[in-house]
């Protein structure tokens, strides 16, 4: 932002330069007028009056001439400072609003992250329960399958054992029969068999 006072810098420089020239010329005039009386006595000459009047007229003229631009420059400077202050206040209020919004966002993000963590924990618990249920059902199925397999193996072993027992019993019975049967008994058995086949 431009400072309005800078526009009148050249005017102020000119005023100070003119004041310097006037004071310098007035000082020279006073020094030159005081040299005639031996240096102790100051004599006021009519030319000194004209010089003071010229200086006063010039000072009044400069005052009247530069009063309005100087006042305008000062008022512009004051306006510029007020505008800068109002802009800074606006920026400050905007920054405070942004900070409040950021704080609200941070709070919302904290709440959102807590919700997400709670949801993940809940899903984890549900998954754990599902996995345990599936494992339990698998264990039950495996136990049922194992008991069926064991029963089947027992049945097979029992049948095999029965077969072996029957075979052994038949072999022993056959041996006993062979040891006790006579030729006459064999003939009787053959005849009975032939009668059954013929009939």
Write a structural description.
The chain is mostly helical and 199 residues long. It folds into 2 domains: 4-95; 148-198. 88% of the residues lie in helices and 0% in strands. Helix 1 packs antiparallel against helix 2 (46-180). 1% of the residues are buried. The model is unreliable at 1-6 (pLDDT under 50).
Sequence-ordered SSE layout with sheet pairings:
Layout: H1 9-33, H2 46-180, H3 183-198
Mean pLDDT: 79
Number of helices: 3
Can you summarize the main beta sheet?
Answer: none
Number of domains: 2
Distance from N terminus to C terminus (CA atoms, Å) equals: 140 Å
Number of strands: 0
Order of helices and strands: HHH
Low-confidence stretches: 1-6
Rg measurement, Å: 67 Å
Shape: rod-shaped
Strand content: under 5%
Q: Which range best describes the helical content: under 10%, 10-25%, 25-40%, 40-55%, 55-70% or over 70%?
A: over 70%
- Judged by helices, strands and strand pairing, the structural class is mainly alpha
Summarize the structure.
88% of the residues lie in helices and 0% in strands. The chain is mainly α and 199 residues long.
Describe the structure using short key phrases:
88% helix; disordered N terminus; 2 domains; 199 residues; mainly alpha; 3 helices; 0% strand
């Amino acid at each position: 932002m431009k400072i309005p006072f800078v526009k009148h810098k050249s005017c102020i420089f000119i005023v100070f330069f003119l004041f310097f020239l006037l004071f310098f010329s007035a000082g020279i005039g006073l020094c030159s007028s005081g040299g005639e009386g031996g240096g102790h006595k100051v004599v006021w000459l009519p030319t000194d009056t004209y010089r003071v009047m010229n200086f006063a007229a010039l000072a009044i003229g400069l005052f009247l001439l530069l009063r309005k631009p100087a006042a305008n420059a000062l008022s512009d400077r004051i306006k510029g400072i007020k505008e800068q202050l109002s802009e800074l206040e606006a920026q400050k209020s905007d920054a405070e609003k942004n900070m409040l919004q950021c704080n609200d966002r941070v709070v919302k993000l904290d709440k959102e992250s807590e919700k997400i963590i709670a949801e993940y924990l809940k899903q984890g618990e549900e998954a754990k329960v599902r996995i345990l249920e599936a494992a339990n059902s698998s264990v039950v199925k495996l136990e049922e399958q194992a008991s069926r397999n064991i029963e089947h193996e027992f049945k097979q072993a029992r049948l095999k054992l029965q077969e072996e027992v029957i075979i052994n019993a038949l072999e022993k019975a056959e041996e006993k029969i062979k040891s006790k049967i006579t030729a006459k008994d064999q003939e009787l058995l053959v005849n009975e068999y032939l009668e059954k086949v013929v009939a």
